[in-house]
Specification:
The complex is a heterodimer of chains A (1045) and B (551).
Chain A lengths: L1 H5 L10 H12 L9 E8 L9 E4 L5 E3 L5 E5 L5 E5 L6 E4 L9 E3 L9 E4 L2 E4 L7 E5 L11 H4 L7 E4 L11 E4 L11 E4 L2 E2 L10 E7 L2 H4 L10 E6 L5 E16 L8 H16 L6 H8 L5 E3 L6 E3 L5 H5 L3 E14 L3 E13 L8 E14 L4 E17 L3 H10 L26 H7 L1 E19 L5 E20 L2 E4 L6 E5 L4 E24 L3 E24 L18 E22 L3 E12 L8 E12 L12 E15 L11 E4 L8 E2 L2 E2 L3 E2 L11 E14 L4 E18 L12 E22 L2 E19 L9 E3 L9 E5 L1 E4 L3 H10 L13 E3 L21 E6 L4 E11 L2 E11 L2 E2 L3 H4 L45 E2 L2 E12 L9 E15 L21 E11 L1
Parallel strand pairs in A: 1-7, 13-16
Antiparallel strand pairs in A: 1-4, 2-3, 2-5, 5-6, 8-9, 10-15, 11-12, 13-14, 15-16, 17-20, 17-53, 18-19, 20-21, 21-22, 22-23, 23-24, 24-25, 25-28, 26-27, 28-29, 29-30, 30-31, 31-32, 32-33, 33-38, 34-37, 35-36, 38-39, 39-40, 40-41, 41-47, 42-43, 43-46, 44-45, 47-48, 48-51, 49-50, 51-52, 52-53
Chain B lengths: L1 H17 L13 E2 L7 H14 L12 E2 L19 H19 L7 H26 L23 H18 L16 H20 L6 H16 L25 E5 L2 E2 L4 E3 L3 H6 L4 E2 L1 H4 L81 H4 L9 E5 H16 L4 H6 L1 H8 L7 H6 L4 H12 L6 H8 L2 H4 L4 E5 L20 E5 L18 H6 L11
Antiparallel strand pairs in B: 2-6, 3-7, 4-5, 8-9
Helix pairs in contact in B: 2-3, 2-4, 3-4, 4-5, 4-6, 5-6, 6-7, 6-11, 6-16, 7-11, 11-15
Classes of the chains: A mainly beta (1045), B mainly alpha (551).
């Protein structure tokens, strides 16, 4: 009977629901006396907070009690009885009463599957049961202890419909991106990320700071964010202070990053053999004769003076990858947080340090980050409370001034026969050899540095006034996110000489130079909103929200550079050649004003209805196009609340949802697109010289587009939430259709226009898909376990793109009407020609326009349209010639599977993640050895066609021709993969709780294994057109500790 | 309570007022609006300067038979070119045409004297003509766009305009330009590099010769009028006080730069130096790396010191070659073919042992010069030290070319040329180069030569490696004869090639390097005289733009 009262009857958008329970408990907590034996104790949550309102029953007895607002309970029971502690939204615990134990402290754990949980939504929070939109939430606990650079990385595979992409393994430039429900636009459409309400970069957060992350996936959930919400909204809530004893938590890990799936170099003699094969096939003459090949194989003959020139000749064998890159690198993360205070004033302060080193063996290649945060909650009086959130994040990237990518490129391109060092007889004083090609290892050590420091300061104040009028809450919020960016590139000159310093064989960074960029940017937001909660007779429940916000952004940037320092070791603009100094400034501004509101209506907790709107105006648009309304509607039916359903006991909750809404995408709008603007030639790298002076020129680079407006994405969603079997099993399924009705697209116009054209609202993109999520959680004896599986399916079609379509001659076509974005087109192939007769016969039948003389070992392209020529036809989907559609670069399915176990002091979890139905291409210059004479073959190319190896992976060697590497089914990579994303084993160390409440140690492995058909030297998660220059990915093993004092 | 009510009222008012539209105006602070531009002469200069910046310098040209690249065969030269999706040959020219059209439409807004405005109109029309001539040379008919277009312009999908009409527009542009631009003599030294009347006339002469000979050798009508235009325009230039630079080799060095050398008519300026590098090119490094390595096919065209040839302009051995000619199977050293020749050859190709790129030239193919010949013309030691730091100006039109146009157009008009006209033109060039044999009608008759061949030969030699050869073969309609032939290189004589063994070379029976065998080269006269129109231009025009024949 009392239990019913404890269960809150309706949604409370703003209250911390704990507050309510204190009230409820004060009313109901009355001691119950018994005849036999009184058991008493305290109930706390996992964080040690007392829990009020927990129902305590005794099995086989009618005795029942409820914990009070200090978490204390007492109940009469017999020895051997089992006490049952239950609380809505928490896992029920059963504890046997022992002989001497009349005091029983109990900790209850939240049941993450329960729909009673509160979910953060736009401008408030709701209980999951009352949601009519599609919102997925994950708690911070599920994201920590993974050795990943940031929160985005930790989210990969965790939530259905949320895809995480990464582009590189380079520290600080990992390029993590989040895509919610596939593409909303063919253009940039980034999810809006609000961290405690402040727009911030998810890639800079420390996972340990996260309390929860809500992803608003459908239009009804996110339309309240209007023009910024088209690609979904991510609401991050950080941990807050709590009243009670001061708590200190410390988390730390140290990880090893182990480079994996990386192309490997050949020994110099093998390399030269392949080069000679390629040269001979292409030009009829090899580069080296057999004597020279012998020199390469002879370890005692590695160089000789060139007989006629002032230089050495090298016949060594140097593995550049080994010399220039470390296979094992390091990362670490340490977080400390302290919280405490009382009900009226509490705080949480946290700080963390993260660092990761990259693969370059020498010189800087790393990223470090510091996060500091302070959250203060204060109740000034009965009506007014203030919440303060402040933070600092500093991210510091250090790399070589020559560019890490360029160095890696060189490590793959320098000839293996070029030794690392000069011969002992060398008299030039140089240590490193740069005779044949520039020496990447020397550059790593001596090429100079580039530092990029990005620091952001955020502050947010939320003043809340409530209960002045019953049910009415006013929030006034102001926040500012201010960034500083400092970049300094000091490029040091390096010269490589011949045998004497008379001959400069090569040089880099000449003249030496300094470039400095500094900017300051801020984003201010002032908003206020009123929330009115009203309950009418007859179970009509209303919540109304109305607010407005104004946002203002400005960035001021200045860049200066100069050359020719007085020495090669001191870099300052003050000491450079005055003639070479240049500078430029850049100011970017925008403003956004909005009105927004929402109505929630619930009838008997059975029928839920929600409507919201946002009316946005942006400075980026011409005044006449400035304002637009973004509405949304949704409804839900909680079938399980119906009387006819009451008898179905194995279903705890069943809810059907449906929603429709419109969202805006403004991220592609330029700042001043409607104004025709002139570019100053002095801000470009293309100089003009008259009269021995740098001369100004002005031009318009892009036509203005005054009619441009937001992209409008219309989204419909239907879904079902179901929990079964005593909340042990939870299932959520959704189906959605998104339509970007007036997508901005760069108009593909004939080049006779002579100028770039800005994007125009001419496109239409349809994106649809479904999501399915199932979780199970139970206990077998002392073993508690959980299982989860989620899968998302997403597809899209470019419905309209101005009717002009060009596939060109194959490859990845970003925009093609009637096809998904980024469709892959290529020729069909049928193996290699095995004999010259076969090749000649083919040549007699089929014209082969990109190569005149096919020979054995060349790829045989199929003349599908039978017109006697291998061609791209008209280059249109209706007349693609011999090109066929080979898929898209975006995975259709993404999925995640996780299993967690805990037994006594041990815990174990394993998490698999994968993607299905993805195609992509590899850079032609990377597949094709010696496409440029400096492009080297790798170990994979040893498996190339020869008469003895007719089924080789690669065709015959042939230099400076890509004819065997045209986009085709042969080279299209099947990007499907399944990967062991994370595996963890933890152990709670038994320790005196007086000093340390909790101490857990663990080993965590990230990306340790995968199964894929992608070319073995590339990670399956790489982007399209990956090349050898790509920064290698890595596997991670880490050792960590979590500790609570 | 009162305070709180007050707060609520204030907040609501603020909220509403914050969202008023006025607050939403943001204007660019570091870019300039076009609407506020086009007022002063400086504005017009800055706008016109964009055309000089867009100007393409075309250093490396491997499309013909005269030079090969280290990186392998050129697909235009060997006939393997395929239809591209897009091509800078097309789109860059229209970018330049947009700039010119934009100036022609907006310069008139300036509240300054019409004479000043006209000068920049003149520059715009010159550059527009320059771009269109390049388009006609490659594609034939091209869409003639004479005003700026926007995305809704119906002309955006216009078909190609017949080349006759485009040529008329070129002449009209150049006539206007010539009337509005300053003379060479009137151009202040500080403005050196800006176009003059001479540049407009010289370009007109180039256009007239191109179109006139194109039509004549295809037996089409109307060629006389174009050749007449060429002769007259060349004469106009010849009245502007230009002189040949006395040193043929120095013309392409820093010494030949600047207004003091009046042979320069139109140049792209690079500068200032490799220690103060504002705009650099890589030409000297490119030459060093064999990206413009001369072929034997080119070298065969040079006369011997007696004024007599060994090979015809179609690369066949003359019935009675110069007595100084050494048959290729009898060449005793690498240098044999380079000796006793028109002195211009010694300014164009390095001899073995001659101080070249980094030390003396030692015959090799390993650095990239696939022909084994090392280009000298335009090579500059100061420019070579650092990649991309070359600063010698690129000559785009020089007086020497004007004299050659005059000679050729005069000859082709009448199939004859007087000795006076030869003295005015070709013999000037020979004298400047220190070549003491004059070309006269008598000499031609006496040695049973062809005046047309000798004039063409003179052009090939004088302008060698300057990017004219391909266009010449196209308009003479001799590409179908010359391009499918073997591209030959230097003679391999073991003692001259210390670092190379014969087994690494593809040699013919005379021990001459076959750089590209004729079997890999073809030229379809029904197709290859025009470039293929880029694919996208056809599809995006909705099919209004049609492909050139047989592509």
């Amino acid at each position: 009977m009392k239990v019913h009262v404890i269960c809150p009857p309706r949604a409370l958008p703003f209250g911390k629901w704990g507050c309510l329970f204190f009230l409820v408990i004060q009313f109901f907590a009355s001691p119950v006396f018994a005849q036999v034996h009184q058991v008493h104790g305290i109930v706390t949550d996992v964080k040690g907070m007392p829990m009020a309102g927990v129902t305590v029953t005794v099995t086989g007895s009618s005795a029942a009690a409820v914990s009070d607002n200090k978490g204390q309970y007492s109940i009469n029971a017999l020895q051997g009885n089992v006490l049952v502690f239950s609380y809505t939204g928490y896992l029920t615990r059963q504890i046997k009463v022992d002989k001497f134990n009349s005091t029983l402290a109990v900790t209850l754990e939240q049941n993450p599957l329960s729909l009673e949980n509160v979910v953060v939504v736009g401008y408030g929070s709701q209980k999951k049961v009352n949601l009519s939109g599609a919102v997925a939430q994950v708690s911070g606990k599920e994201l920590i202890d993974r050795p990943v650079p940031n929160v985005t990385a930790a989210l990969q595979g965790v939530l259905p419909g949320v895809t995480v992409i990464r582009s590189s393994g380079q520290p600080g430039s990992e390029g993590y991106g989040i895509r919610i429900r596939g593409f909303s636009s063919a253009n940039d459409a980034n999810a809006l990320v609000l961290v405690d309400g402040v727009e911030q970069d998810l890639n800079l957060l420390d996972p340990n700071d996260i309390e929860s992350i809500s992803v608003l996936k459908d239009a009804s959930a996110s339309a309240i964010y209007g023009a910024k919400a088209a690609a979904g909204v991510v609401l991050v809530t950080t941990k807050q202070g709590r009243p009670g004893k001061t708590r200190i938590t410390f988390s730390s890990y140290y990880g090893l990053n182990i480079t994996a799936r990386q192309p490997q170099r050949l020994d110099s003699w093998d390399e030269q053999t392949l080069i000679d094969e390629a040269r001979k096939n292409a030009t009829g003459a090899a580069e080296f004769n057999s004597e020279q090949i012998e020199w390469l194989e002879n370890a005692n003959f590695t160089y000789r003076p060139n007989p006629t020139q002032d230089r050495w000749e090298y016949y060594g064998n140097n593995n550049w990858i080994k010399e220039g890159m470390d296979k094992i690198n390091h990362m670490q993360n340490h977080s400390l947080s302290i919280s405490g205070g009382e009900q009226k004033l509490n705080y949480l302060v946290s700080g963390s340090y993260y660092a990761r080193d990259g693969v370059l063996r020498y010189g800087p290649d790393g990223n470090s980050r510091m996060n500091l945060k302070l959250n203060v909650n204060s109740e000034l009086n009965k009506y007014v409370s203030v919440k303060l959130t402040t933070g600092y994040i500093g991210s510091f990237v250090k790399e070589n001034a020559f560019g890490t990518d360029q160095i890696i490129n060189r490590l793959y391109r320098s000839r293996a026969r070029q030794s690392l060092y000069t011969p002992p007889e060398d008299i030039t004083g140089q240590k490193y050899n740069g005779d044949l090609q520039i020496n990447a290892v020397d550059i790593e050590k001596n090429g100079g540095t580039e530092n990029r420091d990005y620091e952001t300061f955020t502050g947010r104040v939320d003043l809340q006034v409530k209960n002045v009028i019953k049910g009415l809450t006013l929030d006034v919020v102001g926040w500012r996110n201010q960034n500083n960016y400092n970049m300094e590139n000091d490029s040091k000159s390096i010269f490589w000489y011949g045998r004497t310093t008379n001959t400069v064989r090569f040089s880099v960074n000449v003249p030496n130079s300094i470039t400095v960029t500094k900017n300051k940017a801020y984003q201010n937001n002032l908003q206020s909103f009123l929330t009115y909660h009203l309950k009418l007779k007859g179970n009509h429940d209303f919540t109304l929200l109305q607010g407005g916000s104004y946002e203002d952004y400005r960035k001021d940037e200045i860049t200066a550079s100069a050359q020719n320092m007085i020495t090669n070791d001191f870099f300052s603009l003050n000491f450079a050649d005055p003639l070479t100094k240049t500078n430029s400034d850049l100011v970017q501004t925008w403003a956004l004003a909005s009105l927004f509101g929402r109505l929630n209506y619930s009838f008997k907790d059975k029928y839920l209805f929600e409507a919201s709107y946002r009316y946005d105006g942006s400075s980026r648009l011409a005044p006449q196009n400035r304002w637009q309304l973004f509405p949304s509607f949704s409804a839900a039916w909680r079938v399980s609340q119906e009387n006819f359903f009451k008898n179905i006991s194995f279903i705890n909750d069943l809810k059907f949802r449906a929603s429709w809404g419109q969202l805006g995408n403004g991220s592609v709008l330029g700042l001043y697109d409607y104004i025709p603007l002139l570019t100053s030639g002095l801000t470009t790298s293309n100089n003009l010289v008259f009269n021995d002076q740098r001369t100004q020129y002005l031009y318009q680079s892009t036509l203005a587009s005054p009619d441009k407006t937001w992209e409008t994405v219309q989204q419909s969603n239907v879904g079902v939430d179901i929990t079964l079997l005593n909340n042990k099993l939870a299932i959520t399924a959704d189906y959605y259709v998104k339509r970007n009705k007036n997508m901005l697209a760069t108009l593909n116009v004939p080049n006779i226009i002579g100028i770039n054209v800005s994007s125009v609202n001419i496109g239409e993109l349809k994106s649809w898909g479904s999501e399915f999520d199932i979780k199970w959680r139970d206990k077998i004896g002392k073993l508690s376990y959980r299982l989860g599986f989620n899968i998302s399916d997403n597809q899209n079609t470019l419905v309209k793109y101005d009717g002009r379509n060009s596939i060109g001659s194959g490859g990845v076509v970003p925009l093609l009407e009637g096809y998904p974005l980024n469709s892959v087109w290529g020729y069909k192939t049928a193996g290699y020609f095995q004999t010259q007769d076969e090749a000649d016969a083919y040549k007699g039948k089929v014209k082969y326009p990109f190569f005149p003389n096919p020979a054995p070992g060349d790829v045989k392209y199929l003349d599908l349209d039978g017109n006697g020529t291998i061609s791209a036809g008209d280059g249109t989907p209706s007349s693609p010639g011999d090109l066929v559609y080979l898929g898209t670069t975006n995975a259709r399915y993404t999925y995640g599977f996780d299993l967690g176990l805990s037994w006594k002091r041990f815990d174990f979890s394993v998490f698999f993640q994968g993607a299905l139905k993805r195609s992509f291409l590899i850079d032609q210059g990377t597949l094709s050895p010696i496409l440029g004479t400096a492009d080297m073959p790798w170990t994979i190319h040893m498996d190339h066609w020869t008469p003895d190896n007719p089924d080789a992976l690669f065709p015959r060697m042939y230099q400076t021709s890509a004819h065997n590497f045209l986009p085709s089914d042969k080279w299209t990579q099947n990007g499907s993969y399944v990967r062991l994303k994370n595996i963890q084993i933890g152990y709670v160390v038994p320790i005196n709780e007086k000093y340390i409440k909790d101490l857990r140690i663990y080993i965590s492995g990230q990306d340790l294994w995968e199964s894929t058909k992608v070319l073995s030297v590339f990670d399956p998660e790489v982007g399209n057109n990956v090349s050898a220059t790509a920064y290698p990915f890595y596997r991670t093993v880490s050792f960590g500790i979590n500790c609570t004092l | 309570m009162k305070i709180i009510n007050g707060i609520i009222v204030i907040i609501i008012i603020t909220t509403v007022s914050l969202t008023s539209c006025k607050k939403l105006d943001r204007f660019p602070e570091t870019s300039f609006s076009d609407a506020n531009f086009w007022n002063t002469e400086t504005d017009l200069i800055d706008a016109a300067n964009r055309m000089y910046q867009q100007l393409d310098a075309n250093w490396i040209d491997n499309r013909a038979d005269d030079a090969v690249n280290q990186s392998g065969p050129n697909s235009i030269s060997n006939g393997n070119i395929t239809v591209p999706n897009t091509s800078a040959d097309w789109s860059d020219r229209y970018d330049e045409i947009f700039t010119a059209n934009n100036i022609l439409e907006k310069a008139g807004r300036a509240k300054i004297s019409q004479n000043i405005i006209n000068r920049y109109y003149g520059e715009a029309r010159f550059f527009r003509a320059y771009a269109y001539l390049s388009l006609v040379q490659k594609y034939g008919d091209v869409p003639l766009v004479l005003h700026t277009l926007d995305i809704n312009s119906p002309e955006l999908t216009m078909p190609r305009t017949p080349r006759e009409t485009v040529m008329e527009a070129i002449y009209a542009d150049l006539d206007s330009a010539a009337s509005w631009l300053p003379t060479r003599a009137a151009l202040p030294a500080a403005q050196y590099g800006r176009v003059t009347k001479s540049a407009a006339w010289a370009l007109k002469a180039r256009a007239g010769l191109y179109e006139g000979t194109w039509l004549k050798f295809r037996n089409e009508t109307g060629w006389q009028q174009h050749l007449q235009i060429a002769v007259e325009a060349a004469k106009n230039v010849m009245g502007q006080g230009h002189r040949l630079y006395p040193d043929y080799g120095g013309l392409f060095q820093h010494a030949g730069e600047g207004p003091g050398n009046t042979e320069n008519i139109f140049v792209k300026i690079y500068g200032v130096s490799n220690t103060n590098l504002l705009l650099g090119h890589n030409n000297s490094r490119d030459l060093e790396n064999g990206r413009m390595a001369p072929t034997r096919n080119l070298i065969r065209q040079y006369l011997y010191t007696d004024g007599l040839p060994a090979f015809s302009t179609t690369n066949t051995v003359e019935a009675s070659p110069s007595p100084l000619f050494v048959a290729e199977d009898s060449e005793q050293s690498y240098n044999t073919i380079l000796e006793n020749r028109d002195p211009r050859l010694s300014y164009t190709v390095f001899k073995s042992g001659e101080e070249a790129y980094k030390g003396p030239w030692i015959p090799t193919v390993s650095l990239g010069a696939r022909s084994g010949f090392a280009a000298k013309k335009g090579f500059n030691v100061e420019d070579q030290t650092i990649n991309g730091a070359g600063t010698v100006d690129r000559i785009l039109i020089r007086y020497g070319e004007v004299l050659l146009i005059y000679a050729e157009a005069t000859y082709e008009l009448a199939d004859a040329i007087s000795d006076e006209d030869l003295d005015l033109s070709i013999n000037q060039l020979r004298t400047r180069a220190g070549f003491n044999v004059k070309l006269t009608n008598e000499f031609v008759t006496e040695h049973n030569l062809s005046m047309r061949e000798e004039i063409r030969r003179e052009r090939t030699v004088e302008l060698a490696l300057e990017g004219f050869r391909y266009d010449d073969l196209i308009r003479w309609k001799t590409a179908e004869i010359l391009l499918p032939q073997d591209l030959l290189g230097a003679k391999y004589i073991e003692s001259d090639w210390p670092n190379t063994s014969a087994s690494n070379l593809n040699l013919n029976a005379d021990s001459v390097i076959i750089v590209e065998p004729s079997g890999t080269r073809h030229f379809d006269p029904a197709r290859n005289y025009l470039y293929p129109v880029p694919f996208n231009e056809i599809t995006l025009s909705g099919g209004n733009v049609v492909q050139n024949p047989n592509w």
